[in-house]
Amino acid sequence: MKRIKLLYRFLIFINVFFSILLVVQLVLLIGPDLIYWKQYEDRTFGTFQSLIEGVRLVLLLIGLFKVQHGVRAIIDEGFYNVTSQVKFKKSGFFLIIYVLISFAYNILVMKELELNIFIVNFIQYYFILLVGIGLYIFSDFIKNGGKLKQENDLTI
User: Fold this and answer.
1) How high is the mean pLDDT in each 10-residue block of the chain (156 residues)?
2) Ordered DSSP codes for 12-52
3) Which sequence ranges are marked TM in the entry (predicted)?
């Protein structure tokens, strides 16, 4: 249980960091671009590029918050519970959506990126996709384990 609590604290740290990063991005990039309609001729999405990156960050942040809530449910209610199963499934869904949008975004802004950054982005998105699918599958393990535990408790 110590490691799960350590994971929970680490997720809190990561989520606070990403929340601060989102606020900074909103204040310094998205807000001024939309208020002053700053034109970027060299960017694919122009004024809305920072907004699209902010939306991607929000999807990642939601997925990580769901993981944090799922881990908290494990700490509070034990390993096999419906709350953590639902939270992990939702977090996997949000991470998969984040990756699909990021893949498309990376392809659309390909001409603005160097080749090594383009490839590294795809590798990162691939690993986040694996984590999202893993969380989705992990939620099914928790669901099936909960059913087995319930049947075992009824048998005794």
Assistant:
1) 91 93 84 73 73 88 94 90 93 96 92 89 95 94 86 75
2) HHHHHHHHHHHHHHIIIIIHHHHHHT---TTSSSGGGHHHH
3) 7-31, 92-109, 115-138
Domain range enclosing 119: 2-155
Sequence-distant contacts of 115-123: CB under 8 A, at least 24 apart: none
Q: How far is CA 13 from CA 9, 62, 64, 78, 141, in A?
A: 6, 14, 11, 23, 27
Q: How many domains does the chain contain in total?
A: 1
Residue in this structure with the two tokens 């090594």, named with its chain if needed:
116
The pair of structure tokens assigned to 65 is 């918050």
Closest C-alpha among 120, 95, 123, 118 to residue 107: 118
Amino acid identity of 44? T
**pTM of the complete model:** 0.85
